[in-house]
Write a structure and sequence with these properties.
The complex is a heterodimer. By secondary structure, chain A is mainly alpha-helical. Chain A contains 13 helices and no strands. Chain B is mainly alpha-helical. Chain B has one helix and no strands. The longest helix of chain B is centred in the middle third of the chain and has 31 residues, at about 10-40. The radius of gyration of chain B is 19 Å and the shape is rod-shaped. The chains are: A mainly alpha, B mainly alpha. At the A-B interface, helix 10 and helix 11 of A face helix 1 of B.
């Protein structure tokens, strides 16, 4: 087996570094503005629209797309499908960075970062779903850090720490899955409280179920798409085993995602029937809902199925990107587009360029950290001392 | 045309009735979709 090493002379001013540098610079300036001038100076938020894209995209989409960690761990360690083992570390790294950036984004929205420990340690609002979300994210971020740590210990050659963490890995996996199940669904349940604000086609008593099920195929899709990206940009860091197994991962996850999406579509229809919301389907909101459900759930499910049947890896990989767009659309519809749907257009929220730039800034931090870690630590390849533990 | 419901029971009876029909459709459609998804897989003999 080949063990990739960094043999080329590092070049500082690559297009990637220059673009990231510019984004980080602009993001840094906006960060200073946000924390010195207040939230009103950089956002278009108001009393009607207190949650913008920092919650709708950074938090809701971030958590959904970080679901690859628990989905892959469950597949590999709970269901025993060891052929998906190569996907575990990249998925955990993505999930860890994803959740860390969710917390970072939350700081921008909430402000006063020194108050972050309050909901957990000082003033627990146990009657609020947000408390459960906060507790789960706090605990799950810790679990993800511990799940990621073996790669860091192998890189640092801390054999004793690596041995100890290896002994508790299954406990961490189980704990992580429980926490994910809780907060992925709770993020949907959060919107149960706003039946008059959220459009009836998106509001349902099954919101928690919708969020949980969609997080599973979102997680699978991000794992598939992630390999497409690392194969394109970090190919020299991928070892032979990872390269071969990733095809199984894409086809296996594509098949499961396809079936789950079909099931998700069915329960969405049943949800409409239970609430008797058929009359809304003939409106413009109904058209938008059908575009989301047919264009970004039904069709990708069928294309995934065709890709899996034909063993067409590229088709499956690009369908994963399509599915990711669908998840983003769903979360944005629920938190922004169909939220406050009865407000006149003039009072609707549209993000300022600084809000968008902050989101781009946060994503860029994630991409840079992923690249820095994946090029140094045994994420996409096995460490020579631990060939079977990868 | 939206039917008139005079009581909550009428409403729930109607919506639950439609939901149960849809569940029956799902119970038929999902196995068919699964078959479409897997019929080209290598068959494993388990006996």
């Amino acid at each position: 087996m080949a063990h990739p090493t960094c043999q080329t002379k590092p070049v500082v001013f690559t297009p990637f570094n220059i673009i990231c540098g510019i984004i980080l610079l602009i993001g840094g300036v906006i960060t200073i503005l946000r924390f010195t001038k207040g939230i009103g100076a950089v956002t278009n938020l108001d009393d009607n629209n207190p949650w913008g894209i920092w919650i709708g995209f950074d938090l809701l989409c971030g958590v959904a797309l970080a679901a690859g960690g628990y989905v892959t761990c469950a597949t590999c360690y709970i269901f025993g499908l060891k052929k998906f083992r190569c996907a575990v570390r990249p998925a955990i790294l993505t999930a860890f960075l994803g959740y860390a950036l969710v917390v970072l984004a939350l700081h921008y929205d909430v402000g006063r970062p020194w108050r972050l420990p309050y909901p957990i340690f000082f003033s627990q609002g146990t009657s609020s779903i947000l408390f459960e979300v906060a507790l789960c994210v706090f605990l799950y971020l810790t679990v993800l850090f511990l799940e990621f740590s073996p790669a860091a210990f192998e890189w640092l050659n801390w054999k004793r720490a690596r041995y100890v963490i290896g002994k508790i890995s299954l406990v961490l996996v189980i704990f992580g899955i429980i926490l994910s199940t809780l907060h992925q669904s709770s993020l949907g349940a959060l919107f149960l409280i706003v039946p008059s604000k959220l459009h009836p086609l998106w509001h349902s008593g099954y919101l928690a179920v919708y969020f949980f099920i969609s997080s599973i195929f979102a997680g699978m899709s991000i794992v598939i798409f992630e390999h497409l990206v690392v194969d394109r940009f970090l190919h020299d860091k991928i070892d032979e085993e990872h390269d071969i197994e990733s095809r199984n991962v894409a086809l296996g996850f594509g098949k499961t995602a396809s079936f789950l999406m079909a099931g998700y579509l069915m329960i969405q229809v049943i949800g409409i029937a239970i609430d008797n919301d058929w009359k809304y389907l003939g409106t413009r909101w109904g058209l938008w809902y059908l575009i989301e459900m047919i264009g970004f759930v039904g069709l990708p499910a069928v294309v995934y199925a065709i890709g899996v049947r034909e063993r067409n890896l590229k088709l499956v990989q690009w369908t994963s990107f399509w599915t990711i767009l669908g998840i983003i659309l769903n979360r944005l519809n629920i938190s922004l587009v169909a939220f406050n749907w009865q407000l006149p257009l003039g009072q609707k929220y549209f993000p300022s360029w600084m809000e968008v730039m902050t989101t781009v800034f946060i994503i860029t931090i994630g991409v840079v950290f992923f690249k820095v870690i994946a090029t140094r630590m045994p994420i996409l390849h096995a460490h020579p001392d631990y060939p079977d533990d990868h | 045309m939206e039917p008139d419901y005079n009581t909550l029971q009428e409403f729930v009876t109607h919506t639950k009735g439609v939901a149960y029909l849809l569940i029956a459709v799902a119970l038929v459609a999902l196995p068919v979709f699964w078959r479409f998804l897997t019929d080209r897989d290598d068959k494993k003999r388990t006996f």
